[in-house]
């Protein structure tokens, strides 16, 4: 009964995408681990790592799309939620190093020993437990989004003002995390991780498992976002995006709806960051850089905002392009990225997926009109 | 080193005018060559002898000895002042400073010196220069003596004071005399009380440290009390001055923020266009300055002091042209879609950065300060550097000119008409697209001029613009969009607030606190300090 | 009748508000009874829209009192609260959700729980669908049910917005210039529509179109410079010297 109503609410397209992501999560590790390297279908480990990273980016873009594409909140600070999730995971991984650090201190991470700290700061307590770290991965970004959004939406900061202060937020966090006395490793961030849940991060098995986890997490996030945007709540988000005051005069507490979407989005971003850190092996304040957050916006814009598949597609496409460019023509990557910003905003405001679905619906409409013309029921011309 | 050369040159001029005293010179030469052989232990005596025998002519030699550039030739033990140059080491005669050819380092041996000797040399130099006919030399000598505690200098200083006619030198001598009086405790009680009064009038950090030292060792309670009360009053005065100094630093930072933000106040504030490439307009201005200076250095070195005067209009034109092209090529298609404008201009900013990086390289470029931009002067107990004063003045002038342009000219009238009611303006015969493009070019051009100013105080690199873009937006948003005075007050407020936070929180934390403050402030007043009120602003 | 129901529905007394020194509303007093339809006329800048802003909580008055149903002080609430209290508003410029279908526009306006959870786990019911279809008939948009609102003509958007007010089922409808930009035929239709609506609801209509006001045939209030200039039947108001002076012209 529940699954049936779920199915009707989501529509076949979303079901396919989720199924595909789960399939990838199951098959890719198999192709990586079970097949010998000489086999044509073997997926090399470096590709597993690379695509694992891309899937994290896709999840971040999906999170941004929920607030930007559906609710019109252009956050230029989503990188901050991603980074906070990453730091929460990084802190867990740091505590897992134990005595294997350079200074072999049983509880203190190396950088604290280096700074002559005597004991673990209070906010590092509990991070030796995976469940606690996993909780913080969603709780910390969620809390920041809640506090920030509470103030911002309640006082009706919208449009570019909101964008600019979200940028200021991530910039302030960037400066703060650079400070050594913040207790997050300063400039160098957190790195030299050894293992996670008792298994080495370096092993192929762990990497494949992380890839699977990311693909599953992306699939679940997609499912969650689909459920939200296809509910009446989702329609209301779009309504708020298009005519905020109309929604307000209909009696909706617009700020609560925005806040809910913003917090959910921040939590998804936090999970993406947490999955990203063990795969790349480092988290540092650079992740808070405002430029990073704006790059997420372009992934979403290229793929197509206001569609859920668009940002995933865009993140994979742009990052694939980035990997290719920075290897082949490192000089020209920023030209390409900058040009992409300009071209997409000028010529593809709905993104690639948006344009495709527009074409499809236009074709359908034409078909429908032809059909109705044939049956003689002339549609009334809109005056 | 520069100062040394100046001293040398002055001395040289003096030496040429002086009546040659051949006999005295011969004795000097003898004493000088004695420096080449002998032990460190014997040096104090030799220096005293030189000091007694010589006059200010010996000062360059003392300075060279102190700086470690006095050598003797191994072959004949002749003593030289040396200067390293491209093709080896240039030798100069110790008294006349005439060049004596170039040699290699191997053939020379350095005349050793230690810190004790350096102190002695310093006093000796002061002694010699206190009576020099050159005012600036006497002044620096008098100031130098403030830190000395050699009671032997006192009589000399007294004599110099007696002869001195220049008021500022006299004052410096009196202050140094007072300091020495207190430090050495040789004089009478009345002298010491006078000295305390003199230092009270001086009232700066130096006076404070002399007085603190005096209180620690003073034996007479009356003097100690006098000194203690003077210390308290100086501390009070210094606290007041440090507030003033902070205000100055704040205004100085504010003027930089104003310069960076004022172009944005036009493009964002007046036109409502979010230009994320605004920082790059500033960068283009800074690189224009660099290129102008390169051309001047290579072709017209004499014009270097005027380089900024050439750079200003060129930077205005360069950034203005880029802005014009941006408006025509991109932004005009995006009016009414502010978020898209934001993204497209960000793209432009990435491309401009990379273009500059490709052409000029990723490293910092050296942009020189013309003479009139360097140096500093003191006002009470605070120091004002020339470049900061000029930038403050420049920011004010740009702001004033902009106000006049927008309020008093036909162009300004048309700009305001277009921004208030585009369709009405168009039907009145104003070419609105043209006004849009020109307004945007104006805002960009002003950013370019800001770049010229900023090149004088910060590194010129492809990232220059990124350093200022967030701050600029903060200023405009804080001040209230669409209001130039808001931008002005916003820049100054944020500058001063930042500098007042810095002593307590440190530079980074102060900046973070300012950002957090603005974020909270926007919650309270979403439209900034000077918001335009009215019905249905957002409908 | 309970004492509460004897009270007027809307009661404004001595309301003033100014923007940067300009008095948009100056000591305005107005009473609207239950079931009444009231037309408000007045020159541009008379404070008609600002008055609506004050009633719906968008603008806070500097002084004066605004009461709804006798004892609800509207100055203490914001837009969403006031909408839930039962005051619906149509904007001067038709404002509908352009990217939603006509049906969805009405469904979003439909009078039901405005909470987050209720909207996340919302299910369509037959009675709701029936009610929305009725409203579609009332505002003459049944044949446009599945069109996007952005595909409607200007007049249809005005009607859709009125339909959304009906779906919201408020006690009082504020309708700002409903016939601006409409053809004559549409104007007549709109007058009929509003008269129909006023059978079950109280309505305040702001309009410049005198023919339309005459069609409505209700009590008229003329505002000028932020206060009431004249009040009564259209003929009474139209013959008032002050009204002729400041608004209608000779």
From TrEMBL, chain A:
Membrane disposition: Multi-pass membrane protein
Gene Ontology annotations for the cellular component aspect, listed alphabetically: plasma membrane
Location (main, coarse): membrane
GO molecular function, one term: branched-chain amino acid transmembrane transporter activity
CDD domains registered for this protein in UniProt: TM_PBP1_LivM_like
Pfam families per the UniProt record, alphabetical: BPD_transp_2
Name of the protein this chain belongs to: Leucine/isoleucine/valine transporter permease subunit
Organism: Pseudovibrio axinellae
Sorted UniProt keywords: Cell membrane, Membrane, Transmembrane, Transmembrane helix
Top-rank lineage group of the source organism: Bacteria
Subcellular location: Cell membrane
UniProtKB/TrEMBL annotation, chain B:
Signal peptide: 1-24
Family affiliation: Belongs to the binding-protein-dependent transport system permease family. LivHM subfamily.
Alphabetized PANTHER family for the sequence: ABC TRANSPORTER PERMEASE PROTEIN, BRANCHED-CHAIN AMINO ACID TRANSPORT SYSTEM PERMEASE PROTEIN LIVH
Gene Ontology molecular-function annotations: transmembrane transporter activity
Keyword Transmembrane helix on entry: yes
Keywords (A to Z) from UniProt: Amino-acid transport, Cell membrane, Membrane, Signal, Transmembrane, Transmembrane helix, Transport
Keyword check for Plastid: no
InterPro entries hit by this protein: ABC_transp_permease (IPR001851), ABC_UrtB_bac (IPR017779), ARM-like (IPR011989), ARM-type_fold (IPR016024), BCAA_transport_permease (IPR052157)
GO biological process, alphabetically ordered: amino acid transport
Protein name stated in the entry: High-affinity branched-chain amino acid transport system permease protein LivH
Membrane topology: Multi-pass membrane protein
Domain of life: Bacteria
Gene from which the chain derives: livH_1
Membrane spanning stretches: 247-274, 306-326, 389-406, 434-455, 467-492, 504-522
CC terms in the record's Gene Ontology section: plasma membrane
Organism for this UniProt entry: Pseudovibrio axinellae
Subcellular location: Cell membrane
SUPFAM superfamilies given in the database record: ARM repeat (SSF48371)
Automatic annotation (TrEMBL), chain C:
Record InterPro entries: AAA+_ATPase (IPR003593), ABC_AA/LPS_Transport (IPR051120), ABC_transporter-like_ATP-bd (IPR003439), ABC_transptr_urea_ATP-bd_UrtD (IPR017781), P-loop_NTPase (IPR027417)
Keyword annotations of the record: ATP-binding, Hydrolase, Nucleotide-binding, Transport
Keyword Transport: yes
Domain of life of the organism encoding this protein: Bacteria
CDD domains: ABC_Mj1267_LivG_branched
Segments forming domain ABC transporter: 10-250
SMART domains: AAA (SM00382)
Gene Ontology annotations for the cellular component aspect, listed alphabetically: plasma membrane
The EC number(s) this enzyme carries: 3.6.3.-
SUPFAM superfamilies: P-loop containing nucleoside triphosphate hydrolases
Annotated GO MF terms: ATP binding; ATP hydrolysis activity
Record NCBIfam families: urea_trans_UrtD (TIGR03411)
Protein name: Lipopolysaccharide export system ATP-binding protein LptB
Species name: Pseudovibrio axinellae
Taxonomic path: Bacteria, Pseudomonadati, Pseudomonadota, Alphaproteobacteria, Hyphomicrobiales
